[in-house]
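Standup notes
- HV: blocked on the assembly model, inputs below
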Amino acid sequence: MSKAEIGLIGLGVMGSNLALNIAEKGYPVAVYNRTSSRTGAFFENAGALRENIVPCTSLEELVAQIKPPRPIILMVQAGKAVDEQIEGLRDLLAKNDIIIDAGNANFRDTIRRFEELEGSGLTFIGMGVSGGEEGARHGPSIMVGGKEDAYRRVEPILTAIAARFEDEACSAWLGEGGAGHFVKTIHNGIEYADMQMIAEIYGVLRDGFGMPAAEIGKIFEGWNKGRLNSYLVEITAAVLAAADPKSGKPIVDMILDRAGQKGTGRWAAIEAQMMGVPATAIESAVAARSLSAEKTIREAAAAAYGPAVAPSGKAPDAAFIDDLELALFAGKVAAYAQGFAVMEEASSEFKWNLPMATIARIWRAGCIIRSQFLSTLAQSFEADPDAENLLLIDHFVGQMQEAQPSLRRIVAHAALAGQPAPALSAALGYFDSFRQARGTANLIQAQRDFFGAHGFERIDEDGAHHGPWGSGLAG
Ligand code: 6PG
């Protein structure tokens, strides 16, 4: 007799941890991995949770072991592997079975998969899962897209395995089709911006003042008790405090300055551009990561231009450290404003009706960008659900009034010292452009009309107008 309530395919780190999490919450789970030895090893190491785990060596066996209608989670590499698994399952499954893609899929692939499964009787869910290994094991943040009734059928399991903020599970249905994977993509875009801005602040202290890693770690540790309280600031403090067992030096000093990326941050930037929504802090963070990978060419450029300003040798004073904290906070507000603006636009373009307050709420625990800030954000969206931009919500207007002079001073400091702060600078540029009632696009319009007769609007009359350019430049 079939025993499992749910199936899970793909026993990599995330899949294994998610399966253990499900088993621990009392739901028998059937598991399958293409390489059977991994399934065996996983089962062997599952300890007491084995009684809720059914290891399977074929897809047929997996399907037979789950009570219908069967929910099956795919935790395989995003892309081709997901399509292959769906193909393999299609003929084995029955009407109303649900395939749940829990990987970091591109939401456009998710939409395509919905279309491909339409009429098959099978149901599809695109589910963003955040929280890394620990989150998968003990409670991730879960962002679901698809048919709402499909979510309701798996909701008890998903809320049981999700992180909890106070008493609320960090799992929610966010909209149809690709909504869940889209929100996860923006989560990751924001994650890139958060991480990059933290790294820029670290750079100001390391390169501008020659401050040792452990001391910088202490500063982050202090900030984690205040308005910057967040998982990423907390782990930054821990990382900076850690010593390399081989050399005894701070481990961070022994790590190559070349960071990888799997694509979600880039997708966030691409989608923002496709929709015409400025997300410059996210874009800069993605670009900074790409440039980090160009180690050889950066070394050549460093040799060609010489080093930037040498460390002052002085310790930064308390006022400067406070400025750094506020600058990071202001940059964060701008980055989140951008991320939520992209979601706002996508919500209307794809008719998802994304619930912004709920998104902020399910990001309060479990996910990589969890922070105290997200609680404030959730409350603000609840109070003002139609807010057009986070920077226009009263609470954040007050916060930015206080923090933006610090962002300005830190960006200026970094620029004068020749220290890169691309994401912080982009955040400041966005803020200054955003709050400028009369910008400079009047000149852009004139230029476009001059060379292409594109026409422009006037401030004093309706309609399209052309300038007195005659036949172009004289001579
Ligand atoms: C999360 C993380 C997770 C993963 C990303 C990192 O929310 O749990 O974002 O999805 O760590 O793949 O992306 P990069 O490899 O592009 O940094």
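- HV (later): unblocked. The first helix runs from residue 13 to 24. The chain has three domains: 6-177, 185-434, 442-475.
- Next: hand off to the docking folks.
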